[in-house]
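Feature request disguised as a bug report, sorry. It would help if multi-protein outputs had a clear separator. Right now it looks like this:
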Amino acid sequence: LPNLTPVVSLDDDDFQVDGSNDPVQCQITDPAEAYNVERITVSDRTNQYNSTPIEARDEAAVNRYGVRVDTGTSATEICDTSVGSVVAQLLLQQTLYNRNTYSFKLDARYCGLNPMDIVALTDEYLGMAGTAVRVLTVEEDDTGVLAITAQELLVGVGTAVLYARQTSTSMGVLSAFATAAPVNPPVVFEPPVALTGGVAQVWIGASGGVGGVAAPAWAGAQIWLSLDSETYSCIGDVTAPCRQGALLAALPAYAGANPDAVDTLSVDLTQSAGTLASATASAAASGATMCLVDGELLSFVTATLTAADQYALGTLYRGQFGTTTAAHAAGAQFARVDDAFFEYDLPASYVGQVIWIKLASYNAGGAGMQGLSDCIAYPYVPTGAGSIGPVTTALALGQSLDLGQVTDGVALTDDFGMTGDTSVIAVDLGVLT
């Protein structure tokens, strides 16, 4: 409990007047120019004392004035990230909310004042009546006059709320020969036409972990594919862990217009140690924060860290890119869809038959790869959902189509989904004549 009692009360009888100027000068910082993001660097003892950045930001100020980042502070003497979080938050509140600075002069009677002392100021012109301020600097000239600068004392911003924060995980001492951790159950899906440009694709995302907990030394995996679960060929690599996890609670179906501001998507990313960040509404509407939940593609505006590796996602744009909005049960697979996914162009002959996928992990040193016989084979039956059908392809190319008589059997078909689905394909057929 700090002592907030002023050591002295000052009024017009105490100030040294400089000409016709008011004895107390006040400088007010424009809130639009105040820094709303503070970053410090600490030494994390739980991560071999590696330099770890910690950031504190005020989202309300960011949304109103834009991002204003202060010069980073080196605080390597701090070895506890929880302490660093408090320090970063206090720095943010200090620079953002303490905006009034006062300057005044006193005679030698007050030479005992030191920086950090609290004094009470009374100045009728500024509307100050016993207002508590904290001394920042004291300068004495040759005549003994003290030039003092002080800052407003806002008690509330001197305390930092202990928010839950994402922390880094130590990789330990990496051995190039250490066997990499196996992959978590991978995320395998076929994106809709709006994301493939009409080419049938299978997207594969993976992360490494043991017992549902992310393995920090996991760096990627080779992807092997087979049609008979016996003979495999390598089709590419996952070169970064995808941010995957599971739903902590059920997500109801939604039939209204986007965005869904009623429901909250609660996810647990422990298996990948992934992080999620908020975005603007326009970015989310365009799919910038696209996620996959049980075949439904959706995006979020706000991402709130509720516990270690757990997030509450709000203001959801449901059923994006022609996918169907549906209800999702707790425990359903979740993935943030981004560049960590490997995109595989699906041969037409693979559509409708089982393909087997194995992912052989390797460690952060690019070694320690799993043996293929030790990897789990994951079956998947592709549907070719990301391809444009033959009718649409012919129309898009301007080719003439003769489909015969109405009594003839069906020769060509395109599946455009349900009549209520969002349109994802547009073909310009020219002017009606």
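(second protein starts here, but nothing in the output says so)
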Amino acid sequence: MQDRLANHDVTVHKLRKLLGIEKSTESQSNVIGKASKGSKAARTKPRKALPRTTQVTPTVVIHPMTDIAKGDDCPQCETGKVYKAPPSNLLRISGHSPFVPEQHVMEHLRCNACGAYFTATLPDNVLADGEVGQKYRYSARVLMAIHKYFAGLPYYRQGSLQQLLGVSISASTSCDQTELVADAIYPVYQHLLSLAGNAKHYYMDDTTHRILDATPIEKKVRGSDKTQLRSGVYASGIIATLESDHDVVLFDTSIGHAGEFIDQILTHRHENTPVPIIMSDALGSNKPSVCIAILALCNSHARRQFADVIWVVEHETVDQSLNPAQQLAYHQQHSLPVAVG
């Protein structure tokens, strides 16, 4: 936002929309008015609820009676007998570090004759979450990656938090362990690229992003033998719908836009695969250069700026509460063709 303001790359009208001060014209009701309560448009079906995430089942701890048992005399009235009744419940949630250290001490024996060593084997549940000698379990590595790339928690802040919680893990350690996760899932990413290359339909878009240490690079111009110095960083997202109707969701953040990302994906396409449909905005750079595709351009992008231009004067007359005659005069004054000088 600061860059766009400094470069005069945003209008006041657009700025108000970006800041949420003014509603976007995406909704049809903002242009033609809201439907009345009895209209067909108002009787829409409710949206389906999003699926709930799996809840953690609490550990159940049984606390038995120690000073009295079933069938004993009542200590209160000393007349009746006590019997089983529904138990009381207390749900207690405790806080601790997300990383729990475990010290596995394996018994070590040595022969006093030949000097051979014998070491106790680790249980299967320990070996399933990490190899022998591996300090950070697979689950710990994944959690570090989730904190960084899903929760947006920088490595140095993870390290500060762990220091407070008494389980010290440095920022560099979190970075190294996250890189191991990336290395492990890279073949999966490559396979998803291969699957996405033969999809029947694509949704694609991108937005500006920032990589702090990214420096300009020389890249080949699409459809040409020339090269160009590039510095723009974009985060591109593509949803590829396979013939099985499963969706493959892929992201790429680099010096490159969504059109180049779809080219990368379509290089995996088989020769006899039908022509794909690509849904995107109308930027020329989104057109693939490695194969023929049916382009389904976004209607929202097509009408957005037109709606702003067409209806902005009408909105101004409504905001000023002008009567019909005043509205006509206002439209006649402000809706004249723009002079080209």
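Even a blank line would do. Unrelated, but nice: The first strand starts at residue 108 and ends at 110.
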